[in-house]
Predict the 3D structure of the following.
Amino acid sequence: MKLTDLKLLRLLAAMCFTLAVVAVSWSQTVTAITVSPMSTQGGTPAAGIVTLSGNAGPAGAIVSLTSSNGAATVFASVVVLSGDKTATFSIFTSPVSADTDVTIAGTLNGSTASTTFQIVPASLESVSAVGPVLGGSSATGWVTLSGLAGANGTVVNLSSNNKALILPPSVTVAAVANEFTFKTTRVSSPTTVTITATLGEVTQTTTVKILSQNSLASLSVYPTVTPGGTGTYVSVDITLQAPSGAGGTEVRLASNSPCVAIPSSVTIPAGRNYASLSLMPTAVSRATAVTLTGTMGGATQKVSFVVDNGFQFSVSPETVLTGTSTKGTITLTAPAPPGGLAFSLKAEVSGSVSVTMPSTVTVHAGATQASFPISTGASTSDGFATVTAVDPNGLSSLSYFDIAATWELQDIQVNPTSVSAGSQVPVTVTLNLPAPSGGIVVSLGSSNASAVTVPPTVTVPAGQTFATVAATVQKLNVGTSLTLNANLDGETRTASLSVTIPLPGVTFTVLDPVGWPNASVVAIGSNSQFGKVYNQSGQHAALWSGSSNSFLDLNPPSWDSSSLAAASGKLQAGSVTNQSPNSSISHAAVWAGTSTSFYDLNPRGAVSSIANGIFANVVVGSYVPTGRGGVSHAVLWKGDAVHWVDLNPANWTNSVALATDGKSIVGQVGGDPGFGLPSAAYWSSGTNTSFVDLQPQGIGWWSSATTGVDGNTQIGWFTQIGMGAHQTTVIYGPYAAIWTGTAASLKSINPGGWFASEANGLTGDVIVGSVTAGAVDPLGDYYPLFTHAGLWWNLGSNFIDLQAASGGNWSFSTATGVYADAQGLHIVGNADGQAILWFVPAGALPQSRLASVGARVGP
């Protein structure tokens, strides 16, 4: 054999050995499956680890996974990455009612390894109960588990060590916690009872104190220092030791000072242990200590607070040129006491500006006002300053002002923003500072001079911040939208203007009947319109048939007032009200075209109710349940007062149903009274479980409501929140919107050039409502100028100013309902306190006369 042949054999042998090693490394087996922890509570995940006999090859290794019991689930496989020997995988467990052993197995290349771990049920974590409790009343307790209950629930046994507290033998926990109700008997003296809860080997206890009589636990106020005479309220909380029994509990109240008036008593309703009052202190000349006294059940509680001389602090002017001065003024609600009233002052600035002012200012005895100068330093950039005044008791008030390096063009506004062809419209330009001697000249222009012309310039007079000129709208054959612009030293501001051509055949009729100074119409049928008429003595439900002299009074003889909210076929829905010296009671009702056909829908046991929508014999609205303190629930009636459904969804305190198409319902839901922003609501059927929250979630969304529904389309409005100048909070909207059953489907149909809008009525693809023109003040806050009735079609894709199209001349108008037939659109609404019926003939809405709606959200 040659040497070269020997080398070749050695090379081949080495290659074979390498290939064998590679083959072995790519054909690993599973040697172990481990789980941590080996015992875990159902509903809590565990971690598994698969271990191979060696490192995985270049393509990794896919290990199949299985579980022997549905109480634990794993993914079908786990990948051991190339070069690794182990991989971690998740084990998801479900709640169980008893100890459950589960085997997790892993398989690779015919090899299998496994391990067994245990899933244990949740244990009893605690038992708690409301207390103290007045003897003879019922209360609520809760049992809480350490985790989720099993699929069939977990039974916790209950017992009491005293017959004065009567418990159910057990409570079944369906999730983590569940409540139970217990009863108490009357006791001759305060008695402490132990409640014992038992689950398996675990026992938990809590105590409940049963009172022989209730008493006043505490009286508290907030804030402890408050200004008098400024409209500021102080909140008073009255708390009992235990919830009131049947009939409620009266607490007598008194104040030692005439500057704080308080009712002689307050009644805390049954089932509640607290009440709150809001008191408005009157003006005082000096700090006055006030003591409030509450008495009940032999117990007296007192609380004291200070009513201070209220004051307001302002800075004027609110914008100054750098190097000049402004003035701060403190105004008291009552003359200063002997010796005067001293205020400390401080200023904070933003930017490279500076401010100089005194550190204190005194309102002299007998005076109500004091002023002081605020000087600004020279600067080449803008900024602003916040000045705070603090009285001797710590009450403070702040005001801020802008410091400008030069004169700037702040705004150009057109009012109104929608005009008819052949008219004039005022255009106002605004500066950030009063103009100097000789005035400030601002250049003007139009994006479509053939449609609207403006003077080339306008001069803001010396000492003024604004000037107004007239823009001339030419006679046009078609409507258009354009912008007007103003320019000062290269800085440009623009304003939108829409020119509308009155549509041929579009008319309106005033429905106000003789003898009723005001009327409102909210619904329309094939030949009738529905709403209310009102004067100083009250309001009556009303029906019209196309003219003012067709008016029919539907107010039932036994009720003081009434109003209609909706109609369907020959039926109308609304409410009736009876007044008393201290309260008013409203009941939902339906009519069939006459006052004597009135039918009371108020549910049995309800405090009050109101009907807002109707389709065939399905009526929706809201009612106030007994003992719920004014909380309202959405409700659906099925033809009469007996067959009704509470639509209030879980986790929502308040709700109201506003409209229905016979199947689905829309309206609004909200949190606690005074709290919890309202959200648009949609019920796909007549049950509370079909509820869908249509309010989008996330930063910037504020509130919403749905007001109409037709099939899969819902209409309404939404608002948004943002930050204005100086970090002030600004609410934008409302903006008209449509939904198709989900929050994500929300689409704004706010027309371009309008600051706000609302959608009120819907039929097919036609929507009616209103649009509002407005302006923004120097702080970034929006304020309305006027509101016009509006009409959308193609589900909001096209829009027309209905007031302008009909030639109406009102400062306020809105459309509330629409009915379509072969002749055209019949639309009802209100304008400056008048009931209005519009008619838009079929074919009168050519797209050439209208601009498409913009997807504008926020100003």
Summary: The two ends are 95 Å apart (CA to CA). Confidence is low (pLDDT under 50) at residues 1-25, 847-859. The chain is about 5% helix and 55% strand.
